[in-house]
TrEMBL record:
It is a multi-pass membrane protein. This is MtN3 and saliva related transmembrane protein. The chain crosses the membrane at residues 6-23, 35-55, 61-82. It comes from the Bacteria. NCBIfam families: SemiSWEET_2 (NF037968). It is found in: Membrane. Gene3D superfamilies: 1.20.1280.290. Its main location: membrane. It comes from Chryseobacterium lathyri.
Amino acid sequence: MNENILGIIAGVLTSISMIPQLIKVIKEKNVDDISLVMLLVLITGLSLWVWYGFIKDELPIILSNAFAVMVNISLLICYTIYKKP
């Protein structure tokens, strides 16, 4: 299998992995089972992958991780909106 195709498939799968969680949070308006630390660490790691992608000039790394950052930032925004005091 071509390594670029493998990278794109891996990037797509990891990028969409949090979408079901985001949909569930939006529908239920409940973030009690979401870890803030996990979200922050994940967003940081994904952002570093984007930076790495720019350094290496690898578009699949940049695009897949940038999309994942946006999904997880959306989840973080939901976390701040729906978190019970």
